[in-house]
């Protein structure tokens, strides 16, 4: 990132605060969502000043999101005017020699993003996604900025995307089967270092309910960035509803409680999708050390890691243990 882009990023971080102070509709938004959303969008627009590029799809998606968040169109357009004003002030301070060059670009970009966001806002008002298979995506509040960049990764027309705001995070609905967008969503999760929950279906209301449940359970776990199907959480949901189920699963890990290094190794092994090398990289250990520890896990628990049913039980037990203890601070 160049010097000017570093300045842009620093400046973008102040935009959310300015919007909330000046515009009542923005002041009503959850500050965690607003900060991550506005910082990413502002930076992408600012970067376009220097590098050029297409920002229309991003701006169109902003219009859709703001409509789902209850922001009025006049408030959205006012935020853009504030963005342009603040950007010009930032340029005067940080890059005075480039003001003459970049000021016309600021005004031209203001027109482009305002027009595109207004179109997106209108699309959101007009309603439903086309009939057919749908894919729903949810991000935790901490990863709210990730869905901002979805238009960059997904080759879908604007009318094939719709946003909603749930209490625990933003939602994105796509008029496409999961198989068509899965790799793009994985890239989005990887590049934005976000945990994204995904579900496929045909009824938007059911998708939304499943995704909101995933957000409610997912924040209890410490998961590496990636794309996770909501069914990953079904065993955890069932275990949390059954005291007997909780006790049985937690008893599986009881022999490992005195060996925290074995618990960490088992968790890393599962997160690395049963890759010794992947677990070794996560823990910065030699693969042979991982293998030795996994043998100890088998010895102490009486379970075998080459059996799907035993692996599933241990995975559920680790999920439950994380949920009972709360999210990791690591």
UniProtKB/TrEMBL annotation:
It comes from the Bacteria. Gene3D superfamilies: PucR C-terminal helix-turn-helix domain. Residues 262-319 form the PucR C-terminal helix-turn-helix domain. Residues 12-127 form the RsbT co-antagonist protein RsbRD N-terminal domain. InterPro entries: CdaR-like_regulators, PucR_C-HTH_dom, PucR_C-HTH_sf, RsbRD_N_dom. This is PucR family transcriptional regulator. It comes from Thermus thermamylovorans.
């Amino acid at each position: 990132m160049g010097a000017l882009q570093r300045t842009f990023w620093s400046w973008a971080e102040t935009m959310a605060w300015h919007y909330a102070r000046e515009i009542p509709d923005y002041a009503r938004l959850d500050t965690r969502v607003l900060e991550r959303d506005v910082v990413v969008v502002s930076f992408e627009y600012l970067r376009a000043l220097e590098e050029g590029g297409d920002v229309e799809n991003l701006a169109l998606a902003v219009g859709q999101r703001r409509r789902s968040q209850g922001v009025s169109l006049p408030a959205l357009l006012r935020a853009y005017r504030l963005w342009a004003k603040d950007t010009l002030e930032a340029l005067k301070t940080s890059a005075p020699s480039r003001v003459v060059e970049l000021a016309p670009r600021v005004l031209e970009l203001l027109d482009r993003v305002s027009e595109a966001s207004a179109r997106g806002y209108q699309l959101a008002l007009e309603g439903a996604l086309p009939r057919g298979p749908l894919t729903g995506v949810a991000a935790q509040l901490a990863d709210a900025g990730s869905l901002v960049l979805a238009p960059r990764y997904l080759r879908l027309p604007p009318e094939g995307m719709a946003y909603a705001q749930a209490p625990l995070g933003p939602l994105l609905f796509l008029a496409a089967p999961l198989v068509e967008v899965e790799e793009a969503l994985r890239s989005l999760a990887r590049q934005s270092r976000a945990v994204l929950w995904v579900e496929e279906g045909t009824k938007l209301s059911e998708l939304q309910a499943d995704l909101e449940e995933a957000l409610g359970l997912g924040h209890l776990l410490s998961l590496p960035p990636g794309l996770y199907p909501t069914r990953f959480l079904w065993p955890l949901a069932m275990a949390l509803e059954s005291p007997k189920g909780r006790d049985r699963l937690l008893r599986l890990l009881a022999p490992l409680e005195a060996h925290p290094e074995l618990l960490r190794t088992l968790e890393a092994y599962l997160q690395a999708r049963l890759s010794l090398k992947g677990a070794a990289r996560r823990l910065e250990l030699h693969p042979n050390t991982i293998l030795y520890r996994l043998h100890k896990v088998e010895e102490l628990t009486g379970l075998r890691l080459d059996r799907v049913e035993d692996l599933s039980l241990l995975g559920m037990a680790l999920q439950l243990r994380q949920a009972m203890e709360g999210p990791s601070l690591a």
